[in-house]
Amino acid sequence: MATDRDSVLEAAVGVLSRRPTAHLDEIARAAGISRATLHRIFPGRDVLIREVGALGLRKFATALDTAAIDDGDAEAALRRLVDAVVPDAALCAFLAGENQLFDDPEINELWEVQDERVRALFLRGQQQGVFRIELSAGWLSEAFFDLVAGVGWAVQDGRLAPRDSAYSLAELFLGGALRSPDRS
After folding, report:
1. pLDDT at res. 21
2. Are the C-beta atoms of 56 and 145 separated by less than 8 Å?
3. What is the pTM of this model?
């Protein structure tokens, strides 16, 4: 029976996003394979971590494309992004918590391209009068990503129902980011 590489990566996300120091034995068990099979697919922990990070960034890029964040009203674009990214919130949690990825120049470059797209969405929203201007677009991007990661952790731990996660994320984030007449 062939082992699907992506299913092993998904199993690794489930373990590593909550326990970054988990042993390879735990990851192999979660994937339903032996440690030897895991090593044949990913010849070392560093390779596995990098591959999970790359998967997370690919899925985040796909969510950005699916949400068409460059189109239309910025609030509507952000809501589309929430809907597109929440199914992979656990990957965002992994990306937020895995320090080893910060030392990888290729991963950092991929992340910067995607973060720039989200910052551009917030800047456009500020220019449209949708988002608060006293909060930088860079900070809004960082806060958004961190809240997505928080959704990933909360769903995994059973503190947030998956069906409520997109609504909860959008309402919490937009409650603080939207410009209102009361604010200067």
Report:
1. 86
2. no
3. 0.88
